[in-house]
Amino acid sequence: MTCISCNKFHDENYCPNCGEKNGIKKITFSSIIEDAFSTITNMDKGFLFNLKALFLNPKKITTNFISGKRKGILNPISYLIISITIYLIVINVFKAPPEEVTETTTSAFFASGQKIGNAVGLFLRTYIKYFWILSIIPLGFSLKLVYQKYNFLEYVAISSFVIGQATIVGVISFLIFRFPLIFDPFVYLTIAWLSYRIFKDNTAKIASILLSFVSLFLFIIQLVIITACIAFVIS
Question: Which residues cross the membrane (predicted)?
Fold first, then answer.
């Protein structure tokens, strides 16, 4: 059979010259749907593979991805985006009814602070997808500062895996406790737990636990600063 990409004749499943798969089917509506679902539901590759691996052996999947062994692993940014999309779908389907606001006599200072807080809350709810995706940068910086093992972009990739997985935990937490994603304690505990599992030193487990919480603390401090900057701009 002749390769459709480089025209090399071969009898392998994949072209030995360029790696193109043999026997590619024509694009149809059913093939598009099938490929989309396969990316998400296949336990040997794609979203569910990442989900399973990050729960069972997060160190292996992240180490493999960084070292270039990426067969079956869904790109960390794609994993994060899918996780956030699932969260947004869930909160829109199961959102709580709006609370009734009662007027009370308050000081001008408190009223002003409440107004700014409401504006910041609205901003974060509106742009939560982008805010949470960009949070991989401060987390990557925190991990880089604490562990000093990889370069910054590699830590950003690891952060994408970590925050994507924490977001899935946030979906479950929301269904039970109705915690907003960025204020959900289970999300941040998951980030600390994954940091510990990925960078754990078996000869110094206590130190590894402390380092994971130090990186989490640095991450939260950066989120607070970013939120304060948003409040300043809005005010």
Answer: 77-94, 130-147, 152-176, 182-199, 206-234
